[in-house]
Amino acid sequence: MNIQMLIGGDSAGGNLCFGLISHLIKPHAEIPPLDLAEPLRGALLVSPWVSFQTNAPSFKRNMGLDSIDRKFLERAEKAFLGNAKVDEYNQPLTARSEWWKELHCAVSKTFFVAGELEIFVDDIAALSKKVSCNNDGVQIMVIPGETHDQMFIDPMIGYGLDGVSARTVQKWIEIRLAHTKRE
What we know:
By secondary structure, this protein is an alpha/beta fold. The chain is built from seven helices and four strands. It has helices at 12-25, 57-62, 70-81, 103-106, 121-132, 150-156, 164-182, and strands at 6-10, 42-46, 110-115, 138-143. It has a four-stranded parallel β-sheet, sandwiched between helices. The protein is globular and about 45 Å long.
């Protein structure tokens, strides 16, 4: 069997992707395990929200340049978590590097996309570094001059899908799908 599935998410959706990946690696005690015959083809994480903390240097450096701010994140965290406690499944940056040792068993390629001017960029880079410690299939692209979810904001303000992040993501997906077809 050849699993030809890519998963992806942006911002909180990227967080949810990491929750799934964590569950595939280390099944959560309250959720039935998911057993895959082989790893997913890829995980695309665009501006993923990987920590509920707001003390990374990029929060201060990029505040006012990005489309989101601390007050929004405080409200979003409460809505996102509900009654759940914070753990590695919903705040992936808190997981130690060892947590991700078996990432390759869940997903063959992991691609982080972040904007240089987004407040999450330092947290995304830190998680990318942790995740890549024991896994060769991890890549991060920090796009100069872009903010949080730039590829989704551009079309809303009339710039279309021609930005660097949109083209980068499209190319990554095309390569992963072409790779799948060859196998």
